[in-house]
Structure formats: structure tokens, C-alpha cells
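LAB NOTEBOOK - FOLDING QUEUE
OPERATOR: T.R.
BATCH SIZE: 2
PURPOSE: Compare the predicted C-alpha cell outputs for two unrelated chains run back to back under identical settings.
PRIORITY: normal
REVIEWER: second-year student, initials M.K.

ITEM 1
FIELD SEQUENCE / FIELD STRUCTURE:
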Amino acid sequence: MICHFSGLSKLVYNRSWAPPMNLIAKDMMKRGYTITRDSNIMWWREPDGVQEGSVDNADIVVYANFTQDTFQKPGIHVGLQGPEPGYFSIDSVGVWPHLDQTYRDVSKTDALNFDNHDPNFGFDESIGLWKENKVSHYNNINLNPGKNSPLPENVPEDHVLFLISGNNDAWNTERWHRIKKCFNTLIAEEIPVVVKYDPKFLLKGDGTVDPKKHTQHEQVLNNLSDYVQVYTNLVSLHDLLPKSRAVILEDTVLNLEPLMHYKPIIVIGSNPYSKHIAKELVHEHQFLKYIKDLSWHDKHKQHNWLQWYVMEYLCNDELSVSKRLDKLLKLFDSSN
């Protein structure tokens, strides 16, 4: 049997990508698979025994940072995740937000009860440490300064926090217009608004402002700053969230910090947790109702989902990879 690593979306397995790919390759070797890869993949610390090969001959294909489409051979999809560097997803559908649980109710199909989940005191301690150390998911240390993050100024109390990823979504090009509608609604209601852009939106890999990106978005940022408080730098979400009433985010935002602070979350689109512990914003008339009446928010259920996601779904070592591949390979066997 052949397990093939495709370079379709990722040709370089660097210091961030090589560790998860190495764990997967070594696990599949133990299962008796021959490991092949596309000839143009550059693989840091490539495991011994990996050969050049073709996806055409593969029984299982491993994709990095890629979501399935109708043109590629089905396989397993690896994506870098939070809550901190070192965590990653292995999924049958794709990478965030295109994970399996985005499209089905895992509380029913996997018999998971987020209303009553067994407590894990080690995980509770981890949440405290992530918040204290201002941890985020960015693998680039220049974009993840932790305790060295600059402190935000003029953060309004009881604000609504918008998280903007800056990712282009060819499927939904009207999303920015929806966000502006939300801004205008809150401003009319005199509810304070804070906008936090993903660091990659305006910054270079070294953490400094990219002049080209800034020039491209300067007009929008200037218009926003007349009405809302905008942060485009390395300010930590852990310093903004304590004063947030609720969080509005695009489904492409994979930050888990709002869940660590147990904030009500409204998702523009659909992501892995939006059906379980958040609200999906489908139509304009829903928005203000969700903001003004937060009785729908369940902190306990939110905590339970986060514990399941980090401790049982995500991977970060040999054991978690082995357990996850056990499940996915059974799924592939049953579908063949």
C-alpha cells in the first residue's frame, strides 16, 4: 500500500510543517505503507525511506493546507491550528474552516455531549497559562510575541469585537459588505466597536508594517478609524477580550482566544463550532437581536467544546496522530 504526500498546495515542509508531516509519515510506515511524495516537495528533516512517486499510484493521499475539490484524488488534509504552535488538524474534508464538523452535528453522529463533558483539570490549567502568556496560534515568533505584545490603548468598555482575517474568499465576495452593515448598525445603537485585523493582513513576516499592504488598505482603515477603534498591529487578543461584550468573526478566523475567554461569538459564515456553541449570522435582521440578548450564550458548553477540540480532535504528538489516523483510515475503508 502507498501513502503519497502531495505538493498540490504546499511545496515546502518547513520548520512549521515538517513536524506534523513527519509524525504522519512515520505512523503510516508503522502501518506498513510505502511513503512517497511529489518530486518537487522540499521536506525539512525528511524521514528515512520516503521515495519520489505519483499520486496516481497512491492508496492514501496526504494534502497540506488544502481542502478537497472535485478534481483531486480524495485523501486526508493537514492544517496548522491553535491554540498554540505545534497543534494541527488531520481531516477528511479540508482545513479550517472546512473541517468535517463544520458540515455535520458531531454531538449526534459521534455521541458527544457538550452539555455534560467530563472535566479535565489539566486542560483548565492550560487555558489559564495560554491566557497568562498571551498565546496565539501563529508559528512565526515575530507574529506571536506573547507577553511582549504591545498593550492596546483606548479600549472601550463593553465593546463588540470584530476579528478580520483579511483572507480572500472567492466563494463569498460580499462578506465585507455584511461586516460594514454590522458596523453601521452598532454605531447607530451607540454600541462601542473594536476591530482587530489578523497580523498578516498588514504586516510582513518580521512583524513590521508592509508599506504595499498599508497603501492598498489605507482608505478603508482611515474611514473605519473615524467611527471605531482599529488595531492592525501585534496587540494581543488576550488584552482586548476582557472588555468585549461579544465577538463577531469571519469563519476563516481560526483564533481560539475568544473561546478561552468564554465570550459570545457570532460567526459570519460557518465554522467547526458555529453550530454548537455560537450563532451563525445568516440574515441582517438577526444581528442586533443576537447582540442585545446574549441569553443564548452557554459558557459551560463553550468550554466543553474547546476541551473536546483541543484534547480529542487536534493532534500534537505521536499518540494523538495515531488515534486520529485510526479513525480516518476506518472511514476510508468503509467508503471503498
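ITEM 2
FIELD SEQUENCE / FIELD STRUCTURE:
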Amino acid sequence: MDETAKNRVNLSSEERWEALISQLGSLRGKPELNEDDLRVDVLPLVKRLNLVQRFDWQRWEEPFPTFEQVNGLDLKSIVMQVTRICRMQRFGDGLLDMVVESGILLELCVAARELTKGELVPSLLTDAR
């Protein structure tokens, strides 16, 4: 774990949101992202904010949202989208790059922060379908 990642362990929820959104904002539109850096810098923050929760994402058939649809999603749907993205990145090379570069992961995280008022995301899923 690098020094920056170690320092993020003790952050408050609001500080984690700020770090995550700042990191994603700086990567939006940036071609040729390093997926290893994303795994080290972005994914730990996503997980510590409880945006990744257990559910059968492989059977979930909802399409990825468009930018226009993100603001209409409820928190549970956002968590399901983020969880699917984070789980799928293990199996599909380039997915994480695509959602970070396009800004869709940033939009999902901004919407989640607004809905939680900067707090940790509550546990919402118990094998939801």
C-alpha cells in the first residue's frame, strides 16, 4: 500500500468523498488510463464508502445508465451500478477505464454523495436482484 492509500484509511466519510470525486474528476476524459492505478487509488475509496455491496450482479439485467438517467436514480440503484462496475472490472479488461474516462462513475459517485449527504452509504443490498 502506498503512502497516499495509507493516509486515506483514517479519513472521515466527507474527506473520502472529496478524495474520490477529486480523483475521478482529474481522470475524466484522460486517455490511456492506467488500470492498476485505478485499482490502487479509486477502488479502495469506493469500497470504504460502502458503494460496493453484495448482490447477484451477474443476474441483474439493468443497462448502464446514461448521464441524464443518473440524477433520477435512487441510492440503491446507484450502489447496484457501482457494484456491478467494480465486480465486472475483474473480468473485463478496460471497463473501469471506460467508466472513469467517460465520467459515468464520477456522476454516480456525485449522486450518491448528494443522497447520503456526505455520509457513508448504508447497507442497502441483501442479495438484491
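REVIEWER COMMENT (ITEM 2): The chain has one domain: 3-52+60-116.
FOLLOW-UP: none requested
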